[in-house]
Specification:
single chain; 2 domains; eleven-stranded mixed beta sheet; globular
Length: 784
C-alpha cells in the first residue's frame, strides 16, 4: 500500500495558490485565480489521478515504447513515428483558438510538476511503473499535438474492405457489408487495379492505432476496436417537464480500465467549465460552463485516402507522378531500445506516409490524412468554446474545429440551442474517397471545408435534435459536390431516439438518463417483421419463432428472446442468408461461401443489422414460403444447439441474454503480469443487456464481453446546473490504490448516475477531500 497522499503540494509555475476540492465521486473541482493557473493545475491533477495512463499514451504516440518494454515494440514505435505531425509548429498553434498554445504549455508544466514530485517521492508512483521497471517522463507542449493516433478517423479501413469485396464478391455483397448512404452509384476510379489491394497493406496503419499489448508486440487487428459511436440529444424547454432545455450525451468508445475520459471542473476568472475531456489534454470537450451546455458525437467524415503508386522499375526510391518520377522523402531516426538504439527509415510521398511497398509487384501505398494537417489534434479545439458565453460564441469557436468529425449540439438557459456538424472536410474534385486512387497526380484535394460550410440547425420548430452517428445530411446537401462520407453508422439507435423524442412533449432528466441505457433494438424488430409471412405452426420449432415474433425487441439482461435472437441472427441466420443471396446473384455455392469472409461482421465493432435486414427482406420477397420457412427453422435449430453448448441445457439454470453477455473490464498492464493484487486486475463480470444496435450501446467480442459502450454519460439541466447528472465508469482514478479506481462500475452497469455539482455551495456540500497547490513564495523588493 502507498502512503496517504499529501493534501498540499508546492507547484513551480503557479502564480497563485489553487484549491482542488475532490467530491464523493472523485471529481476534482479546481479553483484558480487565472486561466494559466487552472490549466497548469489541470495538468498536475490529471497526472495525480491518471499518470500511468497519460505517460503510456505519450510513449505510444511518440514511438517510445521499446525504450521501456523492449525490442518487440520497435515495429509499433516506427508506425507511430510515421504518423506524427511533422508540419510547421507555428502553423499548428495558429490553427487553434487564441490562447490554446498557452493552455497546452501550462498543462504540460503541470504534468511535469507532478512528475518531478513523484520521482522524488517514489512511494507515490502508480504501481505499474515498478511492475515494468521505469519512471514517468517529462512532457513538452508539442507532445499534446504531435501524436494523433489516439483519435477516431475514417476511412482507410473501408477503402480496403470495399475494394476487396467488390473484386471478390461484387456490388451486392458490398451493399450487404456496408450500406452506402446516401444512395449513390459506386464508381471505381480510373487507373486503380483492385487486384493490388490486400488486407496486408494496412498492417502498419493499424499498428499505429493499436493499443499497447503488455504481453508483447501489438496485434494490428486490435486497432479495429477503436471503431465506436455515440448518442446525443438536445431538447427545447418547450418540450421538457421543467420548461428548461435538456442536453444529453453518452459517447461510445472501447471499454477500458482506466476509462478514456476524465471528469473535472475548471474555475478561473472568465471561465467555469465542468464535464469530461481526455486526461492527457487541457480543457473540457463535453459539459457546460454555466452559459452554454455542449456535447458531441462522431460525424464520420472521410479524413483519409489511400494512394497507390507505380514504382520506378529502374529506381525503387522514386514513384510515378505526372509525366515523371518523384523521389520518396526519407527521414532516418533512431528508436531507443533500452540502453541501445535501432535505426528506422520513415518514408513519405508528397501525399503522406508510406505504409506498404511491394517492389516485386512494382507498387507502394501511402495514406493522405486530413488529421496530419495543422490544427487537427483530436479534441484540442474544445478549448476554444470552454469560455463561450452564448450560442453564437460557441458556434464561432467551432470554425477552428478539425478532428475528429463530430455532431456538436448546444443549449443555453435563454433558449438558444442547435446542432453544427464540425470538421475540416477535404474537397475531392473528381472522386468521392470511397476507394483507393492512384498517386500519379490525377486525384488531388482542393482545400478544405469547415463548420460554416457544413450542415447545421438552430432552434428547429420540432423542438429537439438527436444524433447517433447515422446519415443525417439534410435533403438539400449535395454529397456529390462535397463528399463528407458514404460510410455512416447504422441508423438503429437514431430511429429509437427519434421515436422517443417525437412522442414525448415533457422530456425529463430521469427519462433521458434511462434512455442512455435503453436496450430496445428497432432493427431487430424490423428484421423479424419480414418473417411474418411464415406460419410458426408449420415448422418444427414454431414456438421459438412465435416467441421472437411476439418479442418487444428489448434486449434486457434477463431476456430469453434477446439471447435467442443474438445467437440466431448473427451466428446462424446471417451466413445462411449470405449464401442464398450470393447464389441468387449468380455466384457458385463455393463463391457464395467465400463471400462470407467479406460480409460477416465482427460484433465488437458495434453490431450493424442493415445488411441482415436487406437480405431478409429480399429473401422474403423472392423465396417460396416453404424455402424461407425451412431456412428459418434449420438456422433456429442450429442456434438453440449453439446456446445449449454455450450455457448448458435450459433447465439447468435458465437461458437469458445476461448469462452470456456481460461487462468485465481488465487493466491491460496488470492482466499481463503475475503476482498482482486481483482487485487491481479488473472489475466484473456483471450481466449486461443491450447490443451494438441499441441506444444503450453494448457491442461485444467473441467471448460475449462488452467491448464498446458509453462509460461516460451526462444529462444537463440547462440553467439549473446543479441538477445535472453524470457517470464515469469504472472510476475517476487510474491508480488501483485509490478508492475511486473502481467505485463507479456497479452504478454504471445498473444505469445510475451522480450529481454533477457545479455551484461552489453544491461542491462544498459534496467535498470528500481537499488539496492545495501552493505557488512559490515570491520575495518582494522595495524600490531602490
Amino acid at each position: 500500500m502507498a502512503p496517504n497522499p499529501p493534501d498540499e503540494y508546492d507547484v513551480a509555475g503557479l502564480e497563485n495558490d489553487v484549491e482542488i476540492l475532490v467530491d464523493t465521486w472523485g471529481v476534482p473541482h479546481l479553483y484558480a485565480q487565472s486561466t494559466n493557473d487552472v490549466f497548469l493545475a489541470q495538468g498536475f491533477n490529471a497526472a495525480r489521478d491518471r499518470l500511468f495512463q497519460i505517460d503510456l499514451w505519450r510513449r505510444r504516440g511518440n514511438g517510445l515504447l521499446a525504450e521501456v518494454f523492449g525490442p518487440a515494440y520497435v515495429e509499433q514505435d516506427r508506425a507511430n513515428r510515421l504518423f506524427l505531425y511533422r508540419g510547421d509548429m507555428d502553423a499548428e498553434w495558429a490553427a487553434y483558438a487564441e490562447g490554446t498554445r498557452e493552455a497546452v504549455a501550462a498543462f504540460a508544466r503541470g504534468v511535469n510538476a507532478y512528475v518531478a514530485w513523484v520521482r522524488e517521492n517514489p512511494a507515490h508512483l502508480p504501481p505499474e511503473f515498478a511492475l515494468y521497471g521505469y519512471v514517468p517522463s517529462f512532457w513538452a507542449p508539442e507532445d499534446a499535438v504531435r501524436f494523433r493516433t489516439h483519435g477516431l478517423f475514417y476511412n482507410a479501413e473501408q477503402e480496403v474492405a470495399r475494394a476487396r469485396t467488390l473484386r471478390d464478391a461484387g456490388r451486392e455483397a458490398e451493399e450487404l457489408r456496408q450500406a452506402r448512404e446516401p444512395a449513390d452509384r459506386l464508381a471505381v476510379p480510373a487507373g486503380v487495379d483492385l487486384d493490388l489491394i490486400s488486407d496486408d497493406i494496412l498492417r502498419v496503419y493499424r499498428l499505429a492505432f493499436a493499443p499497447v499489448d503488455f504481453h508483447g508486440a501489438a496485434d494490428p487487428a486490435s486497432a479495429r476496436e477503436s471503431i465506436s459511436g455515440s448518442n446525443n440529444w438536445v431538447v427545447s424547454g418547450e418540450r421538457t417537464d421543467t420548461g428548461r432545455p435538456i442536453l444529453a450525451n453518452d459517447p461510445h468508445r472501447a471499454i477500458t480500465l482506466p476509462s478514456l475520459r476524465y471528469v473535472a471542473h475548471l474555475d478561473a476568472p472568465g471561465m467555469s467549465v465542468i464535464g469530461a475531456g481526455e486526461p492527457g489534454l487541457p480543457g473540457i470537450s463535453i459539459g457546460h460552463n454555466g452559459h452554454v451546455a455542449f456535447g458531441l458525437t462522431i460525424w464520420p467524415v472521410d479524413h483519409e485516402d489511400l494512394y497507390l503508386y507505380e514504382l520506378n522499375p529502374d529506381d525503387e526510391s522514386s514513384y510515378r507522378y505526372g509525366d515523371g518520377w518523384e523521389p520518396f522523402r526519407v527521414i532516418e531516426e533512431m528508436i531507443p531500445v533500452g540502453a541501445d538504439e535501432v535505426p528506422v527509415a520513415l518514408v513519405y510521398t508528397r501525399h503522406g506516409p508510406v505504409i506498404y511497398s511491394d517492389p516485386a509487384r512494382g507498387f507502394a501505398v501511402a495514406v493522405r490524412a486530413a488529421w496530419l494537417e495543422p490544427g487537427m489534434a483530436p479534441y484540442l479545439a474544445s478549448i476554444g468554446y470552454d469560455a463561450a458565453t452564448n450560442g453564437s460564441e460557441f458556434l464561432d469557436a467551432l470554425q477552428s474545429w478539425g478532428a475528429p468529425g463530430v455532431n456538436q449540439v448546444f443549449a443555453t438557459p435563454e433558449g438558444d440551442w442547435g446542432w453544427q456538424a464540425s470538421a475540416k472536410v477535404p474537397r475531392r474534385p473528381n472522386w468521392d474517397g470511397s476507394l483507393p486512387v492512384t498517386g500519379d497526380g490525377r486525384y488531388e484535394w482542393d482545400g478544405f471545408v469547415s463548420a460554416p460550410g457544413l450542415p447545421s440547425m438552430r432552434r428547429d420548430p420540432r423542438g429537439w435534435f438527436a444524433s447517433a452517428n447515422e446519415m443525417n445530411l439534410p435533403d438539400d446537401f449535395d454529397n456529390t459536390d462535397l463528399t463528407t462520407t458514404y460510410d455512416w453508422y447504422s441508423g438503429g439507435r437514431s430511429e429509437r431516439l427519434t421515436e422517443w423524442l417525437e412522442h414525448h412533449t415533457d422530456v425529463s432528466l430521469d427519462e433521458s438518463l434511462a434512455m442512455q441505457s435503453d436496450a430496445q433494438s428497432p432493427h431487430a424488430l424490423r428484421l423479424l417483421r419480414a418473417l411474418q409471412r411464415i406460419d410458426p405452426d408449420a415448422i418444427a420449432n414454431g414456438e421459438e419463432l412465435s416467441a421472437l415474433l411476439a418479442w418487444d425487441g428489448v434486449e434486457s439482461a434477463d431476456s430469453r428472446a434477446a439471447l435467442v435472437f443474438e445467437i440466431w441472427v448473427r451466428r446462424h441466420l446471417r451466413p445462411w442468408m449470405i449464401d442464398r443471396v450470393m447464389t441468387a446473384e449468380g455466384l457458385s455455392p463455393e463463391q457464395a461461401r467465400a463471400a462470407r469472409a467479406h460480409v460477416m461482421k465482427d460484433e465488437s465493432f458495434g453490431g450493424d443489422l442493415r445488411g441482415d435486414i436487406r437480405m431478409i427482406e429480399r429473401l422474403a420477397r423472392e423465396l417460396e414460403a416453404d424455402d424461407l420457412a425451412q431456412g428459418v427453422a434449420s438456422t433456429l435449430d442450429d442456434a438453440l444447439a449453439d446456446i445449449a453448448e454455450l450455457l448448458g441445457p435450459e433447465e439447468a439454470g435458465g437461458w437469458t441474454w445476461g448469462r452470456l453477455h456481460h461487462s468485465a473490464i481488465a487493466h491491460a498492464a496488470f492482466a499481463a503480469a503475475d503476482g498482482v493484487d486481483p482487485m487491481w486486475r479488473g472489475v466484473g463480470p456483471r450481466p449486461r443487456g443491450g447490443s451494438g444496435d441499441t441506444v444503450g450501446m453494448a457491442g461485444y467480442d467473441a467471448q460475449f464481453r462488452q467491448s464498446i459502450g458509453s462509460t461516460f454519460r451526462m444529462v444537463i439541466d440547462v440553467g439549473e446546473w446543479d441538477n445535472s447528472r453524470a457517470l464515469n465508469s469504472p472510476g475517476q482514478s487510474g491508480d488501483p490504490r485509490s478508492p475511486h479506481y473502481r467505485d463507479l462500475f456497479d452504478p454504471w452497469v445498473d444505469g445510475e448516475s451522480f450529481p454533477l455539482a457545479y455551484s461552489r455551495a453544491s461542491v462544498e456540500a459534496m467535498t470528500q477531500s481537499r488539496i492545495l497547490l501552493r505557488a512559490p513564495i515570491r520575495a518582494s523588493h522595495a524600490p531602490g
